[in-house]
Amino acid sequence: MGLDTAVYLVGVDQAMHDLGAPEDRYVQVERLVNAASARIEGWCGSRFRRRTATLRLDGDETPLLDLGSPFIPGSIASVKVGGDDLSSPVSLGATDYVAYPARGQLFRASGWPAGVRNVEVVLEVGYAEVPHPVREACLQLVRHWYGDPPGGAGLRSERLGDYAYERFPPGGVGLPDSDIPDEVKALLAPYRRMWWA
Predict the structure, then answer these.
(1) What is the pLDDT of residues 22-50, one digit of tens each?
(2) How far apart are CA 138 and CA 170, in angstroms?
(3) How far apart are CA 139 and CA 9, in angstroms?
């Protein structure tokens, strides 16, 4: 499978060391690092690992455009606006908008024209370096899942009279937040973009 180098938040060797996992568990830990990294980005509604992205967004005539993630200051390569799906695109200059990298937003006084996927921004999203609390959260989530993989054997409910139990379905369906321990959520809380929740 290999490590998803666009997303991973910690290295597999670091996770192996943290877990005290034997070498024959390398592939399992690699999969857990990939899954935990993707789950954290999804739960936070943000990208952490620095990477180049081409974003196609809907304009809605408001002055603020949410890019869905913090981005690297000075990394905007181009901004284009046009009709739906960028028909007849017009390139904007750097003086046509104001960038707020930490908030992941662009401000344009005249607003972003209404349309479907009619604004294209090419830039580097994420952080220059993945924040330490996010790396620690990833390690803790991998550690949590190591004994009980996501979408695997997680117990959903249990009853004692006429004993019964129910497992979560494969793939984590029905696990809105229950696959993420509270300690991990606490580490990630400052990085969660609530309007994505």
Answers:
(1) 999 999 999 999 999 999 998 988 889 88
(2) 21
(3) 9
The closest of 3, 18, 2 to 140, measured between CA atoms, is 18
Alpha carbons 14 and 109: distance in angstroms, whole number: 46
Nearest 5°: phi and psi at 81? -130, 155
Please give the Cα distance from 93 to 96 (Å, whole number).
5
Contacts of 122 (CB under 8 A, 6+ apart): 52, 53, 54, 55, 76, 77, 78, 79
Note the pLDDT of residue 160.
55
- Polymer length of the chain: 197
Distance CA 190, CA 145 (A): 23
pLDDT of residue 178: 73
State which residues of the chain have pLDDT below 50.
Answer: 151-156, 164-175, 196-197
Using alpha carbons, select from 67, 48, 47, 51 the residue that is nearest to residue 108. Answer: 67
Residue type, 165: Y
pLDDT in tens, 165-185: 444 433 333 445 678 999 999
